[in-house]
Amino acid sequence: MSDEPHYTFPPAAAYRLNQCLHMIKSDSAYCARFLADPAAAMDELGLGAEERAALVPIDRDVLVGRGAHPYLVFMAELRLRMAREPGTLEHF
Question: For residues 30 and 8, what is the distance between their CA atoms, to the nearest angstrom?
Answer without folding.
Answer: 28
